[in-house]
Structure formats: structure tokens, C-alpha cells
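Q: Sequence in, structure out?
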Amino acid sequence: MTTAKPTQRRARPIAGTRPTVRLDDQFARDLAVLMQTGDDLTTAMRTAVGIVADMYRTAWHHQSVPVGTAPTLKAYKFVEAPPVPGPPSLPRVTHNGPMWTPSSRQTSTDDARRQQPPHRQQTGRPPVRP
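A: Exactly. Output:
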């Protein structure tokens, strides 16, 4: 008779270590799809994990789900890569939430307001010059 082992949360991954990942049939098929873009196995795994991690960070930042809870993706939008090398046209997401880059397209007037510097309050006095 075998004893059931309780599922344990693992410690955070340590950069520079080589994790061991067991490939079952479905995982191997999913990686093969990602690798059709020409990426090697490592790049495909990094891309996939990065996309999901950005989704989690964004959901937590916007309080869509509590931190530590896996969000469920409801919809997604496909965009084509820019025709020339350069900054991405979509916002870069960090642990602090979306960070708009100068090349980010404005999709609404609300986006345009967010990207403008705050207005200085007029005092009625001429500006002081050095």
C-alpha cells in the first residue's frame, strides 16, 4: 500500500539552476506547436511562461483576482509584429502592472489622458526665470 504525499508548494526557482521538467504527451504537443515558429525548446518554454506570468501580474495589479490566485483568461486579441525592428507597439507589463511605452498606441481618450504629463496649476504670476 502506498501512502499519498501531500502536494507541497515548491520554493521559488533560483536563476542559473537547471529545472527538471517531465514531458507528458500533451505538454510535448503544446511545445511542438510553439516550436513551429523556429524557437528552440528553451525559448518556447520561456515565451510561454512569460506570457502567462504577465497575464497573472496584470490580473493581480487590476485586482481582477486576489494575488496568488490563478486568473482565467476570458478573451485575447491577436496583433502582428511591427514590420521593422523597434520597440513593441503594446504595453510592457511588469510586476507593477502595465507600463506604457512611447510607441504604445492609444486605443481610447482615456489612454491619451494617462500618457499626458500632469497639468501645472496656474497662479496668475509670471514664471520665475533664473
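The chain has a mean pLDDT of 76.
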